[in-house]
Amino acid sequence: xxxxxxxxxxxxxxxxxxxxxxxxxxxxxxxxxxxxxxxxxxxxxxxxxxxxxxxxxxxxxxxxxxxxxxxxxxxxxxxxxxxxxxxxxxxxxxxxxxxxxxxxxxxxxxxxxxxxxxxxxxxxxxxxxxxxxxxxxxxxxxxxxxxxx
Length: 149
Known about the structure:
Strand order of the largest sheet: 1-2-3
Number of strands: 3
Radius of gyration: 25 Å
Order of helices and strands: HHHHHHEEE
Number of helices: 6
Structural class: mainly alpha
Distance between the termini: 27 Å
Largest sheet: 3 strands, antiparallel
């Protein structure tokens, strides 16, 4: 059973039993065979990699923000009315804001990439039914503390 987005839109305000029923599971979790069947039917649970925009394009995209556009318009009015102090102050604030936003997002992307690289390939521990799943969702059996694929 595949759950559609609109069915899960307000899952936090629904009773737990209704959410579990909508997901086709129960409070104890999925059985090993059901987990394997869902893995085959739905595929592994992973975030798709997205192509990155070039740094310059990513930087210039910051200027499409409505607030930034309003501030740039105010700076243009200041320049047109021969108010260089306001023009310099507004332009400086806009540039600093855009640069800070750009740098923070770029660092966050780098950190996210590093986290994706650190995902374990091996199972991470036993589950409720004596099995464990690696990052691709494959099940493994845990026996005497050792996990085997």
